[in-house]
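Hey team,

Filing this mostly as a record. A colleague (T.K.) asked me to run one chain through the structure pipeline before their review meeting, and I want the input and output archived in the tracker in case anyone asks later how it was produced. No errors, nothing strange. Just documentation.

Input sequence:
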Amino acid sequence: MVPSKSALRSRCRAARQSLTEEEYQSECRQIVARAASLPQLLEARTILSYWPKIEAREIDIRPLNCWLRARGYTVLLPIVEPNSKHPRMQWGSFDHERSFVANRWDIYEPVSRSNIPPEEINLVVVPGLGFDLSGHRIGYGGGFYDTLFEHVDSFKLGMVIDDCLLDHLPADPHDVPVNCIVTGSRTLKLDQQ
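Output structure:
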């Protein structure tokens, strides 16, 4: 029997919280170093990333965002539409941490939207509680990235701790798998795109 998405979310949250602070920081550094050497990332000019919730032990990609920005890449961060009936996401430019506001989930977002069109986004860094070997992810259940991928068709990069790279996740027909997953110990390139 395949565990429910709720059970898998709990399992991945517990795996992240079970890491000591040193283990968490070490794994994040290894993941960021691996991601920073990916040709698809280095060749991208415009990247839709995210700002992690460190207290939830999301992968700390802040150094990657700053590194990309310092090298002249356009780094965009998600802005969730607060009053939308359906999950909608826009994006704003990452210029500096001081230009953030917290949304209703205490996720930091840029203050203002960017007018960069979806077709100019070359790569999306996709957050997730867990990923499986086919590139499917389990997120927080809001559906924002599923909706985003209806409009943004670019290389999708997932990053996750080793203990949250699972053999199989339940996938719905609308779920869009990522093209590559980076963990602390490996880089898994998949066939999509």
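Quick notes for T.K.: The first helix runs from residue 5 to 18. The two ends are 31 Å apart (CA to CA).
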